[in-house]
Amino acid sequence: MEFVAQHPILVVSLIKIVVLLFLLMTALAYVTWFERKVVARIQSRIGPLYVGAHGLLQPLADGVKFLFKEDVTPPAADRFVYVLAPFLALSLGLATIALIPFGPATIMVLGVPTQMGIANVSLGLLFVFAITSMGVYGVALAGWSSNSKYPLMGGLRSSAQMVSYEVSLTLSVVGVVLLAGTLNFNDLIAYQSGHWRYVRFLPHWNVIPQFVGFLCYFISAIAETNRVPFDLPEAETELVAGFHTEYSSFKFAMFFMAEYANMITVSCLATILFFGGWLSPFPERWTWQLYIPGVGLILGGILLAYDTAMNQRGIARIQLAVVTIGALVIGAACLLPSVMPVVQGPFWFLLKLLGFLFFYVWTRGTLPRFRYDQLMDFGWKFLLPVSLANLVITAFVVMVLNR
Amino acid sequence: MTLPIILFFVFAAIAVIGALMMIFFREPIHSALALILVMVALAVLYLLLGAEFIAAVQIIVYAGAVMVLFVFVIMLLNAGEEERTNISKLAHYVGWPLGIFLTVELVYWMLRAPIGARATTATIAPGDPTRDLSMLLFRSYLFPFEITSILILIALIGALVLAKRDS
Amino acid sequence: MNEIPISYFLVLSAILFGLGVLAFVFKRNIITVFMAIELMLNAVNLAFVAFDRARGGPHDGWVFVFFVIVVAAAEAAVGLAIAITVVHNRQSLNIERVNLLKF
């Protein structure tokens, strides 16, 4: 106890880790629900509907189903690596969230002032890339240890793909680093505060000077997370299910969660690097923007209340009523003068994050899959030269402007 | 026992155990996993020494790229267990004593190093160490830096020529 | 008392280097022999970083680590390409089967 008392940072960090992990796991579950709903709407369907109102309890039902399925291990598999791979994939997918800052405000945990986010590392961006670069192992080892031909092909394809696209992913971000002159997330966001001198309504976000870099980043990020249209490792028409063909039950669910965790990570990075992180798009002198989170939530709550009263019957009505009251209470709490400044950062951050996740789902619902050779050609012969050219031009401009 | 010392011993133990596992595992992919463990443990030790940038580069380049290449080649060649031969038995009887002798001697000379008696704080080095490093790299060591880029180009072409099958 | 003696790091580096040499001697597989070389390079890097820390001042030690890492990456690429060629010609990963130039 004395040891812990000497290092209060340990306890505070532990509390922050537990809270953030719980939130992240819930978010992962509901991103699947979000994806299914949006893809269904794109394809003129309705999507999950029966478990809970609007299928809101569907993720829970999926989780229970995964837990109670039989856990099959192929007899020829390398048991240790076979079990290790999904754990590696999921833990590396979740670990990056430790470096992401969610807001500028300092909050008090157990009387210790601390920032929103687990750690503020001076080389945060590099460490995020360090963790994501390890993410290949989960996929490669899963493919190898299954000792079966489709997973092996899927594993080889995906490791080649992830290593190739990691190069352009990293290079496309260097332009932003050159502009801001730092690798720390807080400083990177601080660089983007304010507005342009001549076009005063445009926020000073990196997406404007670095638009090419942003495009390269986002395309490589989709490939890096093995999503449509670059989901070659899982191309079911060719490879059954790619590297996780042999996985069942909760191990399969872990790969699934790892994929969504990686999606959230790269979307967080895009938000921070190109869209100003927690900054609001409006000038600071417009003080009415402080009411946006609270009023937005209350309006959403009113819409939900209308839906509850008019369209829902039976148990779904009670469930949706609970969600409605939750939204209204949180919205009202966001209007309290002591809470208002604290929620601004997380609100804008999560809004931008949701925008990116919607974009991910949108591409999935719209684009067909690439062929494997097209994918490699695109990565090495188009994306890499473009991001390199962007880097050289940015370096030149920064040098001329700093002169 | 303070926090940095505990961290040091935990990760030093992980590194040594990982290196031993690399020797004793017969399946190449298990050896590769053990080596990745050593590299990650070393990255944490670099953090204890205040070398944040080197720790990040260690993981990105070694664990994230070089070892992925190893794992990839092992998967591609489908390398099975190692076979034992007569010469490896010889290595078994002569190698252990010689290796242990070498290790002991290295430890002895490392302990006698005059610099070793100094202690370090487990904090980030003062100033902006990453900035200092880039200044060194692009000013004092600019020529070696450019030479390495040529080295990498040569390695790239060499690997391509070697691995390409005649068609 | 947040201090760790530099000699701890140096001893760890020596032990890891010794284990790397042992692995290099024992391993019969081309790929694991390469891994043993990587382990030795890692041990040397640890010694560089530790000496750099003890010395203070400009971080010349880190520059050397940087170069070692770059050279190791290049070496791994070429070495593994050689391994692939050897396997295509000899159908074995065992280094003792690669004895055409042996007297």
Structural class of chain A: mainly alpha
The largest interface is:
B-C, 90 and 75 residues
Distance between the termini of chain B: 64 Å
* Sequence of secondary-structure elements of chain A: HHHHEEHHHHHHHHHHH
Number of helices of chain B: 6
CATH fold-level label of the largest domain in chain B: Four Helix Bundle (Hemerythrin (Met), subunit A)
- Rounded to an integer in angstroms, the radius of gyration calculated over CA atoms of chain A is 22 Å
Question: Poorly predicted ranges of chain A (pLDDT <50, ≥5 residues)?
Answer: none
As an assembly, this protein is: heterotrimer
* Tertiary shape of chain B: globular
Which structural class fits the helix and strand makeup of chain B?
Answer: mainly alpha
β content of chain B, as a range? under 5%
Shape of chain A: globular
Describe the structure.
The complex is a heterotrimer of chains A (403), B (167) and C (103). Chain A is mostly helical. Chain A folds into two domains: 62-279 and 345-402, no CATH class; 283-335. Chain A is built from 15 helices and two strands. Chain A has helices at 2-6, 8-42, 58-68, 79-95, 124-134, 136-145, 149-180, 185-191, 211-224, 236-239, 249-274, 292-311, 314-334, 340-366, 372-402, and strands at residues 103-109, 112-116. In chain A, strand 1 (103-109) and strand 2 form a beta hairpin. In chain A, helix 4 runs antiparallel to helix 6 and helix 6 packs antiparallel against helix 7 (149-180). Chain B folds into two domains: 1-82 and 109-125, Up-down Bundle (Four Helix Bundle (Hemerythrin (Met), subunit A)), CATH 1.20.120.1200; 127-167. Chain B is built from six helices and one strand, in the order H-H-H-H-E-H-H. Chain B is mainly alpha-helical and 167 residues long. Chain B has helices spanning 3-24, 28-48, 52-77, 86-112, 129-140, 142-163, and one strand at residues 119-121. The radius of gyration of chain C is 17 Å and the shape is elongated. Chain C has three helices and one strand. Chain C has 103 residues and is mostly helical. At the B-C interface, helix 1, helix 2, helix 3, helix 4 and strand 1 of B face strand 1, helix 1, helix 2 and helix 3 of C.
Short structural summary:
The complex is a heterotrimer of chains A (403), B (167) and C (103). Chain A has 403 residues and is mainly alpha-helical. Chain A has 15 helices and 2 strands.
